[in-house]
Amino acid sequence: MSLIGDQVSAFVLPTVAVVVLHAGSVEVGALNAIASAAYPVLGLFVGVLMDRVRRRPAMITADLVRCAAFATLPVAAASGVLSLAQLYVVAAVAGVFSVLFDVAYQSYLPTLRSGEPLARGNARLEMSSSVSRLIGPVPGGALLQALAAAGALAVNALSFLASVAGVVLVRAPEPTPGSHGARTGVWRSIAEGLRFLWGHPLLRPLTVAAGLRNLGMSAVRTVLVLFLYRALALSPGVAGALFTAGAVAAVAGAMLSGWLAGRLGVGRTLLLTGCEGLAWLAVPLALVLPPVGIVVTVMVVSSLWLPIWNAVVTTLRQQVTEARLLGRVHATARTINLSTIPLGALAGGALAQLLADAYGDRTGLTLALVLCAAVATLSLPSLLVAGIARIRHYPSPAPVSGGTAEGG
């Protein structure tokens, strides 16, 4: 429910800003930037915190704070005092505590299961994430249509209470955090997580590969919107259907991740996820063949692979990292990986403008898409050099150091 709440919020907040508060493009852009800035700014510090406290109470706290933050919006809307400034504050608070929840649950899951059960758990979480991205705008739009801004915002706040209920029902024991971390300074703790990640022969190439694919695919997504409307002259309805097809494919990919890793091996499955970027190299065919058929095929093939990558890489990271470092290592990897997304968006927009001016919309935007996709495929060499293809099974869990079991 927390994932669905995040996706509903991602749709409802900018919609309320535009429809109710008449915000312009710069103001909406600022709102989205504020909502996504928490990981690059605070991710490393949250990782340290999650290695010093129990993760389950942190998840509950994160949901309760997000619920309280969003609950202020319907009150303000009903009173006629809702403002952009309040939306900015709520987006910032929600962003910070979404990072806390993310790091906490990724660090908490390995205390519940390991090996293949852990891989299945990550696959289910990735499927939940894919489903929430698919259906999030649907209830968001329906709530706004049926209940207006105040009602939609109120229901959105309540979704986080449903998430709290789910976390409370998990009663598995959680190890007590070791006392060593509390005696170490924050910056030294951050450095320890960075050293472990960058010095690990498996985690380093995976992190580099993820950063490159995020950089390239973020640029692809930026150029794609321009390509669909300007180069192919598609209507918003058709473009929306194409994105929906991609979201459905992502759900299917999440469902297939466990089967593929078991059938082909972990390493080969990771190499196959390079199809996410490779598929977009075929997009020039849309200029000479029926464009909708080509684009929907490319989007479906490409969208299958991100949830598979996420589920497999997350499991590998959890398996090879000591429990006392899980929060820091996960937060460090996510901070590096997610920081390349805004860079890719900016680079994709600049490249699209440059090439469209030089060669026209059809040729220039097509070329921009191909170049951005080529950047995403640069993730493959780092995986090949590291010998990732030789990994058949998930490794045994890293040894646990310190801490005692205690009921959750």
UniProtKB/TrEMBL annotation:
TM stretches of this protein: 33-50, 71-101, 142-170, 212-232, 238-262, 269-288, 294-316, 336-355, 367-389
Keyword Hydrolase: no
Keyword field contains Lipid biosynthesis: no
InterPro entries referenced in this protein's UniProt entry, alphabetically: MFS, MFS_dom, MFS_trans_sf
Locations listed in the record: Cell membrane
Chief subcellular location: membrane
Coiled coil segments of this chain: none
Keywords (A to Z) from UniProt: Cell membrane, Membrane, Transmembrane, Transmembrane helix
Pfam families linked to this entry: MFS_1 (PF07690)
SUPFAM superfamilies in UniProt: MFS general substrate transporter
PANTHER family found in the cross-reference section: INTEGRAL MEMBRANE EFFLUX PROTEIN-RELATED, MAJOR FACILITATOR SUPERFAMILY ASSOCIATED DOMAIN-CONTAINING PROTEIN
Record's protein name: MFS transporter
Organism: Amycolatopsis thermalba
Species classification: Bacteria, Bacillati, Actinomycetota, Actinomycetes, Pseudonocardiales
